[in-house]
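=== RUN LOG ===
request id: a7f3
mode: sequence -> structure
chains: 1
length: 406
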Amino acid sequence: MNGLINYVSCGVLWLCLVVKAPDLLRHRRDPYLGAICAVLGLAGLCFLLGAPPTVGAVNRLGGVPNLAAPLTYAAITGYCAASQVLIVRWRGGPRVDRTVRRWTLAYAAVVLGIGVLFALGDAPVERRTDLDTYYATTPFIAQMIVLYLVAHLTAATVTTFSALRWARRVRGGLRAGLTLLGAGALCGAGYSTAKLVAVGARWSGRDWSALGTTVSPAAAGLGALLTVVGVLVPLVVPRVTEWRRAGRTYARLGPLERVLDDLLTRRALRLPRPRFASPATRLMWRQTSIHNALGHLDAYLDRDLYDRTLTGVLAATDDPERAEAAAWAAVITEAVRREADPARGVAATAGGGSPPGVSPGSPVGPPLGPAPGPDALGRIADVLAVAPPAPALAAVPSGTTTAGTA
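=== RESULT ===
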């Protein structure tokens, strides 16, 4: 009688609603988000109103015995309508708005019928857990009970078949979400079926009220859990996939950042490391640090070394992307050495000294093109991860390669 299952289910549902609320506030005109929030909110309200302590409080505050019953049934009916609207919005198509209107009007009529039948009936004895079976033979109240149960069973059945049929046509997170949503709707169908069986047994003079007081709440709780997970999976999976991809790219760029680490530290080119940040934010931080370092090294990049390495690796591997990455790795590594000790860097260039009029820190040959993009940075880091170019790479003659770049 303490309604623990109801309150826990309500708390889980409304917690998910709180998580989605900021998105709804930012995109108030998005009908899809509105449908998701309506499902979560109404499902939680159903559990809240259905908890025995809440039933007693509502009846006491309203001054009407069993007033909580039509309110709970109306919330369940609204949840059914919201579930159907969500499936329709999720699926899309040219007749979405018309289908949504039909479901909304149909279940609005059910809510109206529940209110009218309760007003016409007489339920003077408060029943917090077994009202469905206790009043199963009472005029108008019995019709109200059957009306809401049939409406709920209809919506749950349609949702189950629609979700599972559509799940066979899609892949990934959407398929998982639809499968879970269909399973949750199937549990919801079990809820209304158990109650209908208990009501039917009451009509035949049997007492199967345990179906309505134990089996139905358990089916409803499991259905709510599956529904919540099913609604959230298609929203969470793309974000998790993005974070996983960002995390892999972040780790992949590690060798390149380590080559630039001394420069980034000495020149204070690295932004403060973000704390408690998402993988995407950490990746942006690492990419920004690398680009800051490459921008500082622009005056130390050796075009002749780039061309020689590119030609040699391309001849050995016949892989333009790999050759470009190896050339950039060689140029960046040598530029870091030249920036740290310009005099030694110039002495190590082809010919053993600076060309006339060229000072330490000046590029050798024409300037290189634009800085490498994100994909190219990953390939450069891969080269450095295998075997960083040796210092002697600057003197490699055209047409040859060094260990770790081929």
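=== NOTES ===
The mean pLDDT is 83.
The chain has 15 helices and no strands.
=== END ===
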